[in-house]
Design brief:
Number of helices: 13
CATH topology of the largest domain: Rossmann fold
Number of strands: 13
Mean pLDDT: 93
Distance between the termini: 75 Å
Bound molecules: tryptophan
CATH class of the largest domain: Alpha Beta
Largest sheet: 6 strands, parallel
CATH architecture of the largest domain: 3-Layer(aba) Sandwich
Low-confidence stretches: 24-29
Length: about 325
């Protein structure tokens, strides 16, 4: 009697082991698909749009998350030490390819590996960020998409909307290499349209509100490059600037939607789609990062926030209104 029971127990254990062996095998099969590790610097509407675009671009090329590719996503929450650990984790999770969204994230990935392919998602200037040797021939394991803004067109738009403006304040964060580059471009562009300019550099998001109050007294309008720290605090910037009716010309559509007056900007979702496509070509072996030029967008769209224009008492010239997208129809 006793031995019969024992046999049943042993039999049960054997069945269980066989079962778990089988399911383990199955899981291994799923792991056969490539893994893409994505590191996003921080959350703000533009970067979130870019990540959505990346998933779409990969899917368009046959890499659908959960089916034909496994995407592991990490958000560094603007914290340098998190970016470093997350980069290492993404490599340990056996990523076949890495994508960095925004300059500080891409730099953290680049510092962690010289072998795994890295695709840049919307990096203002990959060369001055130390990520590639040149845009034409990146040279190592890194290529991708630059979102260099059409700064000259942005300033031409600014002066046609604000013909009385004499002085512009450029607001950005000292922690971002991408903004230093664009602020220098902005100074030149301001001069070219007859404006004087002054830079207002914040060490962190804590100083933004106070800095905007100072700017409101000293400048006729505020220009913002594609700075992640400022984009993340756009609501604070807008509410402070609104108190003195100081117009804001940011660099992207999402920041116009949040209360900027207008810009000439690159569609953030499209930036992501292009990033996803370049990643797909590398995964499938069609292209090699070292010899794939950085993709740059040559044109942007005019985007106007009519409600904000009304609030500020700014009249939009008819010819501009005709070419512009309105923030209200952005969602379609
Ligand atoms: N270009 C930025 C960088 O290199 C990232 C970025 C893309 C961004 N779109 C933006 C920043 C919109 C602010 C707003 O880091």
């Amino acid at each position: 009697m006793k031995s019969k029971r024992l046999m049943i127990v042993i039999g049960g254990i054997l069945l269980f082991l066989a079962g778990s062996f089988f399911t383990e095998k199955k899981e291994e099969k799923v792991e056969d698909i490539p893994t893409v590790g994505v590191l996003q610097f921080v959350s703000h509407p533009a970067l979130d749009e870019i990540y959505r675009g990346i998933q779409e671009g990969l899917k368009d090329e046959g890499y659908e998350d959960g089916k034909t590719v496994k995407i592991v996503f990490q958000n560094g929450q603007a914290d340098q030490s998190k970016l470093t650990t997350m980069s290492q984790q993404l490599i340990q999770k056996n990523s076949d390819l890495l994508i960095g969204i925004a300059t500080p994230a891409a730099q953290a990935l680049a510092n962690s590996t010289e072998d795994l392919p890295i695709v840049l998602g919307a990096i203002t200037d990959p060369v001055s960020a130390g990520l590639v040797e040149s845009n034409e021939k990146p040279g190592r394991n890194i290529t991708g998409v630059s979102d260099k803004s059409p700064v000259a067109s942005q300033f031409e738009l600014a002066v046609s909307l604000l013909p009385k403006a004499k002085k512009v304040g450029i607001l950005y964060s000292s922690a971002e290499e991408n903004s230093k580059y664009q602020a220098a471009e902005a100074e030149k562009a301001a001069q070219a349209v007859g404006l004087t300019s002054k830079s207002y550099v914040v060490p962190s998001s804590n100083e933004i509100a106070q800095t905007v109050q100072v700017m409101a007294d000293e400048v006729d309008f505020i220009y913002i490059p594609t700075d992640n720290t400022i984009a993340n605090a756009m609501q604070t910037v807008v509410s402070e600037a609104d108190k003195t009716k100081t117009p804001i010309i940011p660099s992207v559509d999402t920041m116009v939607t949040e209360g900027g007056l207008a810009t000439v900007g690159i569609n953030q979702f499209e930036l992501g789609v292009q990033t996803g496509k370049m990643a797909a070509d590398i995964l499938s072996g069609k292209s090699d990062p070292a010899t794939t030029p950085i993709y740059t967008f040559t044109t942007g769209d005019i985007i106007i926030n009519e409600a904000q224009a009304e609030k500020l008492g700014v009249t939009i010239p008819q010819n501009i209104l005709e070419q512009a997208k309105k923030t209200d129809d952005e969602t379609d």
